[in-house]
Amino acid sequence: MNVTIKQINAFVVVAQSQSFAEACNRVHLSQPALSITIKNLEEALGGALLVRTTRTLALTPEGQAFLPVAKRLLLDWNQALTDIGSLFSMKRGKLSIAAMSSYAASLLPRVVVNYQDQHPDINLCIHDVIAEDVVELVRGGRVEMGVCFDPGPCDDLVFEELFTDAFMAVFPKGHKFDSMKEITWSQLMDEHFIALQKPSSTRLYIEKILAEYDISFAAQTEANQLSTIGRMVSAGVGVSVVPQLCEAQMRDMNCACRTLKSPQVALPVGLLHRRRYSLSAAAEAMRQSIVQEHLEAKPAMINRVMAEECTPCLQ
Question: What family does this belong to (predicted)?
């Protein structure tokens, strides 16, 4: 059955006006064209909807039954067009994104403020999770995009690098490291070390790099969240390493932070989305907000001049 919205609209206008001449003016069709439109609709539905004489126009019983249905179809059609137009113009809608906790607690709040100033009618849902979960949320389509470390080559995902984030040493205030400007990995490994739990990709990457420098990785305590590591360090449990994005968060927890070298370890941070799926208008606006925020702000924590070459990132 091939019925068009144009045919349904023509039928409703004719039925309401009870005049082909008036209906022609309202739908901007000539009388022959309007007659053909109604005839094609009747043929598609299987019978007459209107009874016409030289002086009168009336609905058949089938036409009377179809009229409220046709009106509802037009209303639903117009509402659908309005809804999709609102989504494109971002006058309404919902956007779900994911961000690893180091980014969510440092740079993302400024992005959200700017985004909501420009698009106040978009309802934001932010998943603050570990980097591995960001990848899985994006891959599974539960969020449109995420911010995380480079997950490496993925056929189904696109990674857009924003900046490179180096790791830094964190330790409780009053520790012997307080007098040092820089700390080496070997010095850290001689202390009670708190590490991210396996199978954290960040931990695996660090272990790989240290192995290349013949430095043994030994973790006495493990945790799943960087915030938990910070609390443990602050309490005096031990020392650890975190991305420089976490510096403000670590200092708020009363931890001390130092540059980490020999080797310096860094990972790209960027936007992640599915390769074969286009971003919605709301998600694309968020992508542009994140990129623009990075270009304009260039936070010191992620733009420090390195004294040495950063270790190449894991591919």
Answer: Belongs to the LysR transcriptional regulatory family.
Amino acid (1-letter code) at residue 278: S
Q: Which residue has the tokens 């909807």?
A: 49
Higher local confidence (pLDDT), 167 or 2: 167
For residue 6, give the nearest of 74, 81, 84 by alpha carbon: 74
Q: Which two tokens stand for residue 105?
A: 């607690």
CATH number of the domain enclosing 50 = 1.10.10.10
How many domains are there within the chain?
Answer: 2
Same domain, 60 and 195: no
**Domain annotation covers residue 290:** yes
Q: Does the reported pTM lie above 0.90?
A: no
116 touches 133 (CB < 8 A) = no
Question: For residue 13, what is the DSSP state?
Answer: H
Could you please report the per-residue DSSP string of 250-285? Answer: HHHTTEEEEEEESS--EEEEEEEEETTSPPPHHHHH
| pLDDT confidence tier of residue 89, bands split at 50, 70 and 90 | low
pLDDT tens digit sequence for 146-178: 999 999 899 999 999 999 999 999 999 999 999
Spacing of C-alpha 260 from chain mean position: 32
Torsion on CA atoms 234, 235, 240, 243, rounded to nearest 10: -30
Coarse DSSP helix, strand, coil percentages of the chain, rounded to the nearest 5 percent: 45, 25, 30
